[in-house]
Amino acid sequence: MSREPDGLADLLPQWHRLRDAEQGEGPDGEPLRALLAVIAEQVDLVRSGVEQQYDDWFVETAAEWVLPYLGDLVGHRPLPGYEHLLATGPEDGGRPDLSRRRLAAALSPRREVAATVANRRRKGTLPLLEELAESVAGWPARAVEFSRLLSHHQPVRLYGPETAAVRARRSGRGRLADLRDSAELDLAGGPFGAVARSADVRRARSARRPAGLTPAGVGLFVWRLRPYPVTDAPAYCVDRARNLYTFSILGNDTRLVTKPEPEPSAAHLATVDNVPAYIRRRQFADRLADYYGPGKSLEIHRDGREEPVPLSDIVVADLTDWRYRPQRGQVAVDPELGRIAFASRSAPRRGVWVSYHHAFGDDLGGGEYDRDRDTPATAKVYRVGPGRSFLRIMDAYERWRQDRREGRVGPEGVIEITHSGAYQEQLDFDLGPGDRLEVRAAEGTRPVIRLLDWYSNRPDALNIRAHACDCRGSGPGATAEAEGAEGAAGGTAEGTTAGTEPADRTGGPGHRPGPHGCPHGEPARIVLDGLLIAGRGINVTGPVGTVVLRHCTLVPGWSLEPDCEPASPEEPSVVLERTTACLQIERSVLGTIEVIGDEVSTDPPAIHLRDSVLDATGHTLPALSAPDCRHAHAVLHAHRSTVIGEVHTHAVRIAENSVFTGRMHVARRGIGCLRYSYVPPGSRTPRRHRCQPDLVGPEEAGRVRPLFESERYGTPAYARLAAVCAEEIRRGADDGSEMGVFHDLYEPQRMDSLRARLAEYAPAGTDAGVIPVT
Question: Where in the sequence does UniProt note compositional bias of the Low complexity kind (predicted)?
């Protein structure tokens, strides 16, 4: 569309425009104006190209395909494969998709090209190496010169009075351990320790076994796990009689990390305060005021008070096995286990709330990070939380049902939880044809839904039910209300949040009729976004259209033991019981999916798994199946996901860039395919394309298998591939990234790019290497 379609026509003399108008009205009228409008559109394209050509002279505004050429002018060299990422195909409308853009940024960041000249001037300095780790890989780092950590002998000739300056220069180098300096001993062996060590023959730049303390070595210690805050969340009471709590509301031990502070200047070397390092007990005790308090790494509130527990009442203790007993008025904190103990005579009576930071690999499973959310313009938002109109989720739901029944709102409803608290209530959502309900966490919150044993004669799952329309009602929600409960909660819903409707939603004049030809609209749709659900799972029944789990966590095994072991490892997180629901799982963590359906008279529903972890808590336990490990009547679509457990399903339409740790048994092998994924030997699958361990043969199958740093939810390194995992898996995706849920982090490409820059900017003659800390 031209910016000025009539701009050229307005430049013509008046008599030409009059003659053109005399040609008549209608689609064929004013042919000269129509011709000039087409020419004006081409003129605008040329004008935009000229403007973009000027913008391409500057790295801040240049197009992506221009960056390698600008970098070449200043000597910046992108890694091989960057040019291929910018090639577009007909399937993406001429634009690279989000994954390609992320990989392009990992290989040649715009900021790195802009800083090339300035970096050349600072070549060989340790602060520059730390900046490169942040700009190239996005990892906080600490650069260490290993020659300063090597033990050495003091020459006798340097003891004279004329060598005071030389002795002063050597005083900051590695030295023998001082047994009286417990703080220094606590940091020994890490990037911040100064205790001398003997020489190591391993090379610092070794990709397999780095960290060689060679005399000419430089190590760049990087933190790949990110700090994630939890704000004003309730602590978990482990023992009410003894006043024992954990920071994690699930009751498991959680290592606390520091809230990183920005470095004051470009010449500053990173300290323990500038990186998301684990907080040690000795470190916490020595610098309690630096880590505890409002806006800092952690704080504790009790009995509903706005002020945190005073700093003078905090004591640091080892709460392993809960043996330590604080004195009266004291609160014992163990940052390495994430535990709290109150004195017996000063126990909290109205609860404990905590704010802290924990480490994890990526934005996954919900949290206080930013999430892309779209609110339909016609939807009404019901907010739940302290100070809001509703204190319970079901109160807001009943109010939406009442408004829906009385015709005050449309089919779109949003229940937004505005507080990172725990909601202990039985959730039952009954939906009718056309209903579209979204239950989500507000921006910057992480609410927890604890499903407890409310009834003794039936399970207490989160129930999602839909009812077929009998077409006897007069309104779009008539059938849903015929089944529903009476009585709405008090209070009024808050205003509507403006937005646009997601592209995957359907409706409007051209939508399909509901089930069984119902004219009232699409089947029901429900979205759960940003929720942490523990204690039970989700049960879906009836003719539901779509169930979406987005940025959610359904704790595998329902709940956790203190060591992060699952409490009920064989219990499912999602049960699809005689339903037509299409299950969509996006950037979520959940346990087993169990499908109970009619395999004769109904088509298998689809299960879409994207950037998620499906964890059966064991490699031989079923992650997707019907009861008794029979084939689930479902069709699986898996993209960039990690599945821990076996898969027994009707069909697999597509599985790409994914990891399946248990055997896969597919009943219908004639459709679908697996590409660039790992499936164990002996699996029965559709056709495979460049999957492992098929490419290495049976003799290498024992080596090429997924190895994880941790397979237990609740640990910082959960579902991350270990450094000793085979390269065929760590770089086995279709774009050279790793298989599994952390594919879009592009850590192999980031590591290669950082090593290339480190070799370019490291001090001359040094052996520089990258050493991951987390």
Answer: 477-486
CA-to-CA separations, 6 to 39, 50, 366, 549, in angstroms, rounded: 10, 21, 51, 49
> Helices (DSSP H) in 239-279: which residue ranges?
none
Residue spans of beta strands (DSSP E) within 530-684: 532-534, 538-542, 544-550, 553-554, 574-579, 582-586, 589-590, 593-596, 606-610, 613-615, 622-625, 632-639, 642-644, 646-656, 659-660, 664-666, 673-675
Measured in whole angstroms, how far is the alpha carbon of residue 142 from the centre of its chain? 25
The answer to whether the beta carbons of residues 570 and 594 sit under 8 Å apart is: no
Q: Before 693, cis peptide (omega within 30)?
A: yes
pLDDT at 481: 37
pLDDT of amino acid 477: 40
Q: What is the pLDDT of residue 521?
A: 62
Q: Indicate the Cα dihedral angle 382, 386, 391, 392, nearest 10°.
A: 80
From residue 713, give the alpha-carbon distance in Å to each of 80, 221, 377: 36, 26, 37
Would you state the pLDDT for residue 264? 81
Amino acid identity of 647? V
Give tens-digit pLDDT for 697-749: 888 888 999 999 999 999 999 999 998 899 999 999 988 889 999 998 888 88
- d(C-alpha 349, C-alpha 404), whole Å: 41
Residue 85 carries which side chain, given as an amino acid letter? L
User: How many CB atoms are closer than 10 A to CB 593?
Assistant: 29
Contact 526, 561 (CB under 8 A): no
Structural domain spans, the chain? 122-223+754-772, 226-360
Q: Which residues of the chain have pLDDT under 70?
A: 1-7, 10, 15-16, 20, 22, 24-29, 79-109, 150-179, 181-183, 186, 189, 193-216, 453-459, 469-521
* Type of residue at 427: L
Sign of CA dihedral 122, 128, 132, 134: negative
Q: Are 140 and 258 in contact (CB under 8 A)?
A: no
What's the CA gap between 514 and 521, in Å, rounded? 5
Beta-bridge mates of residue 767: 217
Question: What is the distance between the terminal CA atoms of the chain, rounded to a whole angstrom?
Answer: 51
- Contact at 8 Å (CB) between 546 and 582? yes
Phi-psi sector, 630: left (phi>0), alpha (psi -120 to 50), beta: beta
- Cβ(142)–Cβ(269) under 8 Å? yes
Which phi and psi (to 5°) does residue 761 adopt?
-110, 0
DSSP state of 144: E
DSSP states along 90-122: GGGTTS--HHHHHHHHHHS-HHHHHTHHHHHHT
Give me the pLDDT at residue 728, please. Answer: 92
Residue with tokens 């429900």: 526
The pLDDT of residue 438 is 94
Which positions ≥6 away from 303 have C-beta within 8 Å? Answer: 348, 349, 350, 351
* Residue 378: predicted pLDDT: 84
Closest Cα partner for 758 from 223, 265, 128, 267?
Answer: 128
Q: State how far the alpha carbon of 95 is from the alpha carbons of 88, 102, 224, 752, in Å.
A: 6, 13, 30, 26
Between the CA of residue 497 and those of 85, 374, 379, 502, what are the distances in Å? 37, 9, 8, 14
Q: To which H or E segment does residue 617 belong?
A: none
pLDDT of residue 752: 84
For 517-536, write each residue's pLDDT tens digit.
Answer: 454 568 899 999 999 999 89
Please report the pLDDT score of residue 711 as a whole number.
93
Considering all CA atoms of the chain, what is the largest pairwise distance in Å, rounded to the nearest integer? 108
Judge whether 651 and 631 are in contact, CB under 8 Å: no
Q: What pLDDT does residue 26 have?
A: 54
At 614, list the tokens.
Answer: 């499906």
Burial 656-686 (b: 16+ CB within 10 A, else e): bbbbbbbbbbbbeeeebbbbbbbbbeebebb
State the Cα–Cα distance between residues 179 and 188, nearest whole angstrom.
12
